[in-house]
Amino acid sequence: MITRLPTLALTAILVPATILAALGYVTLRQWERSAELLFREQARDVAMMAAGKLDMVMREADKGLLSRLQSALTRPDLGPALDAWRARASLVRDVYLVDRTGRLLYPTVAKGEERSVATRILAHIPETLWDSGGQRELALGDQIVLACVVRSRDGAPALAALVRDVEAIRREILERALGGLEAPTIVAVMDHADRPVYSGGRLGQADRIATAPLPDVLPGWRVAVYQPPGASPRASMRRQVAVYTAALGLLLVVILVGIVATYRVMRRESEMARLKADFVANVSHDLKTPLSVIRMFGETLEMGRVTDDATRQEYYRVITRESERLSRLIDNVLDFSRIEGGRQRYDMVPTAVEPLVRETIEAFSYPMAQQGFKVEVDIAADLPEVVMDADAVGQALANLLDNAIKYSGEQRQIAVAARVEGEQLALSVADRGIGIPPEEQARIFEKFYRVGRSETQGRRGSGVGLALVRHVMEAHGGRVTVDSRPADGSRFTLWLPVRARGADA
Ligand SMILES: Nc1ncnc2c1ncn2[C@@H]1O[C@H](COP(=O)(O)OP(=O)(O)OP(=O)(O)O)[C@@H](O)[C@H]1O
Ligand SMILES: [Mg+2]
Predict the structure, then answer these.
(1) What Å distances lie between residue 339 and 61, 273, 332, 336, 386, CA to CA?
(2) Are 353 and 490 contained in the same domain?
(3) What is the pLDDT of residues 329-340, one digit of tens each?
(4) For a surface tag, which of 30, 251, 323, 324 has the fewest beta carbons within 10 Å of its beta carbon?
(5) In this structure, are residues 333 and 283 in contact, taking their beta carbons and an 8 Å threshold?
């Protein structure tokens, strides 16, 4: 169940997430397409509208220009009259007037160059214009010419060629007509060579999205609508996709982290349940062993079968020792449960170290002697008194001794040492026993944790001893360390601050 959980959760989350991502992407694509379409349509409308407006404004200007020209032509003094007309016609750069035979009527005093320009323009005027009358726009190289058949004073048709002043058109027509246009796009007017004559913004990186020609008034010219960089639906779509993908990715990461965390918590919980079951079995067994010894010796004594005084004394000692062991065991479990419940209190008083260490070792003298342990005790002289809860530290030390005995093999040697290192009292218990694999050294301090069954086979224990030791040390502002190699032995050291908080005050 637990191992299947991640796969299950992954499928249950990844499948909907993938569908969601795909759907989101498709929706965004569709949205992009319709937005793009709409955008282009709008741009086309803007271009048409601008072209229409320019057309109207130009026609209006031309109409005034031509009617004034016509009235100037009725004056007897053609030269000065046209000069006066020209002075007012700012949109016209040059004007040429010819009769049907090709004679230049104006400018009255023409230079050779002007004459050739006039001839060139005339060559482009279709014959039909003379007969049909009216006006025509011509693009001659860079020049835009408005050709128009007019009546001269004597009634004969004459041709007026007005060369437009591009700069004046830009200034007076384009800027005025398009300047006020408010749009997210840029409106520009391009000449016949696609050079911008006017633009409502910077065209540098902009994309052209729509154009509309100005065929009647400015041949070859057109209105172009541009899109500033980054404003296109595609760019905003790309931003949306990036945001969407990032959000989805973040969501997936959060979900995955959640699954992993849940999985780990569940595995821990089931491991804890197994450890607790082991704990109950181990504690019951540990309690039963001394109890049956006490009972057996008690019954033997009760029956009065032991006549020998020395043997009787020996039996009494066994009973006392086993009940002490029982008390120790029960104390361990009770203290542990108090610690777990946060109800443990410590009674901190300055305590002499040497007597405490010796008494604790003394309590183990019988089992050690019986199992043939050699004990080496090395207590530094002039150890200061240390502020501590003597019972708790004694119990921690007893746990280390108990482990040293329990986890020793053929080499039955224990070394207990007490010394001051820096600002700390170091109480160490070393054995030459089975040792602890490096990867287990951190875990042995966890509650209920016991190193793999094979290592501890035949050695019962509840797995709370070192958890208790660690807690006691932390409560004293100290710590417990282990230095161990498998098959070589272990050294556990209790570190206690010599000056406890407030002790020197
Ligand atoms: N001196 C040691 N040498 C080798 N392994 C040890 C030693 N001390 C502890 N261990 C390992 O650490 C584990 C945890 O020790 P701890 O004292 O907490 O529990 P325990 O001895 O199994 O049970 P108890 O609660 O009865 O002390 C032990 O099961 C053992 O595997
Ligand atoms: Mg132990």
Answers:
(1) 100, 19, 10, 5, 23
(2) yes
(3) 899 889 888 888
(4) 30
(5) yes
What residues flank ligand 1, with Cβ below 6 Å?
A: 399, 403-404, 407, 431, 433-436, 444, 450-451, 455-456, 461-467, 490
- Same domain for 113 and 197? no
Residue 400 burial by CB count (10 A; 0-12/13-18/19+): exposed, middle or buried? buried
Closest by CA to 58, choosing from 232, 238, 187, 221, is 221
Residues 190 and 163 in one domain: no
In this structure, are 83 and 208 located in the same domain?
no
Ligand 1 atom nearest residue 450's Cα: 29
Quote the domain boundaries for residue 41.
25-167
Which residues crowd ion ligand 2, with CB under 5 Å?
403, 461, 465
157 and 220 assigned to the same domain? no
Q: What ligand has the least distance to the C-alpha of 461?
A: 1
d(Cα 212, Cα 55) in Å, to the nearest integer? 11
Residues 156 and 31 in one domain: yes
The domain boundary, picked from 142, 167, 192, lies at 167
What is the CA(498)–ligand 1 centre distance, in A? 27
Amino acid found at 334 = L
Give the chain's count of helices (H) and strands (E).
Answer: 13, 16
- Give 255-281 pLDDT, tens digit per residue: 889 888 999 999 999 988 888 888 888
Is residue 74, in this structure, part of any structural domain at all? Answer: yes
Q: How far is CA 433 from the centre of its chain?
A: 51
Query: What's the rounded mean pLDDT across residues 434-462?
Result: 81
Query: CA 463, CA 402: separation in Å to the nearest integer?
Result: 12
pLDDT at 455 over 90: no
Same domain for 197 and 135: no
Q: Pick the more confident residue, 419 or 128.
A: 419
What tens digit of pLDDT does each residue of 186-236 get? 899 999 889 999 998 888 888 888 999 987 888 889 999 998 877 777 777
- Look at residue 77 in the predicted model and tell me its pLDDT: 86
**pLDDT tens digits, 348-402:** 999 999 999 999 999 898 889 989 999 999 999 989 999 999 999 999 999 999 9
Domain count, the chain: 3
Question: In this structure, which ligand is nearest to the CA of 463?
Answer: 1
Q: Is residue 222 located within the same domain as residue 96?
A: no
| pLDDT, mean of residues 304-316 | 90
